[in-house]
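Entry 12.
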Amino acid sequence: MNLRLTLATATRILRQLRADHRTIAMMLVVPCVLLGLLAWIFDGTPVFDRIGAALLGVFPFVVMFIVTSVATLRERTSGTLERLLATPLGKGDFMLGYAMAFGFMAIVQALVATAFAVWVCDLDVAGPTWLLVVVALGDALLGTALGLFVSGFASTEFQAVQFMPALVLPQFLLCGLLVPRDRLPSVLSAVSDWLPLSYAVDAMGTIAAVPEPLGEVSRDLAVIVGAIVVALGLGSLTLRRRTP
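Predicted 3D structure (tokens):
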């Protein structure tokens, strides 16, 4: 890989995003709107404080998955990717450049969503707010990496979106948000142990309940980072120059 080409790719993607106001709004506004709606629905009850931190990780994951998978597919179907890969730019440079660009947006998204949840929606957490931001950032990067990975298997934007119920919804159902993972049937509990979103929800739950959670959260963060690296590696292997 070439660092100069990787940075050039990241810069190009950020310039495109800056001109795409709807995509920026989806990444930054949608998680806040959903969190605000839930806080309003459960106003006066302890429910939002119980699930709000976990959703602070789930919503960025879902949004970044959709945006990244569709944006990457658009690069391929438009012929841009084929032209880029005809230059010295390698697949690894492309994947890492995309990850860096959307990673920057993920940082902004994590900061905005966490600030909105804590200071506007009055989300009460026992742990430090900065750790909430770190885990939310990891979840957003995980969604980005998985979006890059699945985009290689889609031929149209509609197919890219169809991967959400196939890859994202099972993780949502088994991550422990709806039913604690230790109360799931043994087979489903074993499956949830292999799903990275489970560790993101565990980390958020620990931060919400434990005043000094860094030691407990470190393992969950390590799993999330490992999943990001694996997804990016697999994405570079499955990336196609163009759509048949």
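Annotation: Residues 47-77 form the longest helix (31 residues). The chain is about 80% helix and 0% strand.
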